[in-house]
Specification:
The structure is a single chain. By secondary structure, this protein is α/β, with parallel strands linked by helices. The protein has a single domain, classed as Rossmann fold, CATH 3.40.50. It has 13 helices and eight strands. The chain has a six-stranded parallel sheet with strand order 4-3-8-7-5-6, sandwiched between helices. Strand 5, helix 6 and strand 6 form a beta-alpha-beta unit. The longest helix is centred in the N-terminal third of the chain and has 14 residues. The N and C termini lie close together (about 10 Å).
Length: about 250
């Protein structure tokens, strides 16, 4: 099992892109249902301050990918080696490349029908992957019957990788509660990654990604949506980082 560190009690797996891909493929090969969280600074803050359920979901995941330069920068400053940023959209694309031309299948859960239609066209143009299905659930009328319907769909197609875009916080808890209802498959919560791949949300220039300023680029694109989210998380993560720097050394375990 891959080692982890904890930031304010929230698990971050000690990995970078290549080791994360390798671990995801190992999880698939194990044959047991599992789930992967893509954990950024905002998720760390919300899991610590606002939601013990989210914290449990991340901590019980098979893999908690370090999404966001602030996390990898903090880990590096604490002397932890082997942690590099693993962004959701990049991770998806690497898995697509890894499974191209194979019988490994992919299912896409979440977002809107319009986005899913665009995503399917994009994937069929760029990647030679097996797509077993896609589904946009009724977000406004979610009920236990919705969960049952989703699991039924997934069990019918018996997908290998299930890409889950239900929104940060919600998707992690949903995967924790429902992944064991499958016979097999790896669920991966990727937030807005579908929209990054379709181009509905533009990725920041590489220099901004490397310097930890991708959040600023996204804020410029979606000020109404992102301002409140960032204002409620980034200052806290900065404060937590300062506290962690003066705490004992992070020891992966």
């Amino acid at each position: 099992m891959m080692k982890s560190i904890f930031i304010k009690g929230v698990k971050i797996s000690v990995c970078e892109m290549s080791s994360a891909i390798s671990e995801a493929m190992s999880l698939l090969s194990s044959g047991r249902p599992s789930y992967i969280c893509v954990t950024d600074a905002g998720n760390v803050v919300n899991a610590y301050r606002n939601s013990s359920e989210l914290r449990n979901a991340i901590n019980n995941s098979d893999l908690s990918l370090p999404d966001g330069r602030p996390i990898s920068i903090l880990a590096g400053m604490k002397g932890v080696e082997g942690i590099g940023r693993v962004a959701g959209p990049d991770f998806m694309q690497k898995i697509f490349e890894q499974t191209s031309g194979t019988n490994i299948s992919h299912f896409f859960l979440g977002d809107t029908n319009e986005i899913l239609d665009k995503l399917m066209k994009e994937l069929r143009t760029k990647y030679n992957i097996k797509i077993s299905g896609f589904y946009s659930p009724p977000f406004e009328n979610w009920s236990p019957a919705t969960d049952d319907d989703i699991i039924k769909r997934l069990r019918i197609v018996n997908a290998d990788f299930i890409w889950v875009s239900l929104g940060g916080g919600k998707q992690e808890v949903w995967m924790m509660k429902n992944h064991e209802r499958l016979e097999k498959g790896v669920m991966i919560g990727v937030g807005a990654a579908f929209r990054f791949l379709t181009g509905d949300i533009q990725r920041a220039p590489l220099m901004m990604q490397k310097t930890g300023l991708e959040w600023l680029y996204r804020l410029i694109q979606q000020p109404g949506k992102m301002f409140g989210r960032y204002a409620g998380t980034l200052p806290y993560f900065a404060a937590y980082s300062i506290q962690e720097l003066f705490n004992n050394k992070m020891t992966p375990k």
